[in-house]
Amino acid sequence: MAAGSYDMVVEPGTTKSCVNCKWGNADFVNPLRGNCVGAKNHMGGIWKRMIMDYYNTTCGKYEEGDVNFRDHV
Ligand code: SF4
Fold first, then answer.
1. Domain locations in the chain?
2. Fold for domain 8-58?
3. How remote is the CA of residue 44 from the centroid of ligand 1, in Å?
4. Strand ranges, E, within 3-63
5. Which tens digits make up the pLDDT trace of 9-30?
6. Cβ of 25 less than 6 Å from ligand 1
7. Does residue 73 surpass a pLDDT of 60?
């Protein structure tokens, strides 16, 4: 799997935005931003990525899910 497919893409109005993705978490301070825990580094650790525009960003790892679903990561 190419690492490039995880690259975040800003797509205004996307239906596959991070806000609907089970890997996304809203930022506590500014909910228009968030972070993503969907990627892991080569050591298997979670690679937490900042999302600058939580509502208009997507990536190749988008996975629709309950946004409150957290426990398996
Ligand atoms: S996996 Fe992709 S679409 Fe999902 S929260 Fe992370 S960056 Fe956004």
1. 8-58
2. High-Potential Iron-Sulfur Protein; Chain A (4.10.490)
3. 17
4. 9-10, 24-26, 34-40, 46-51, 57-58
5. 999 999 999 999 999 999 999 9
6. no
7. no
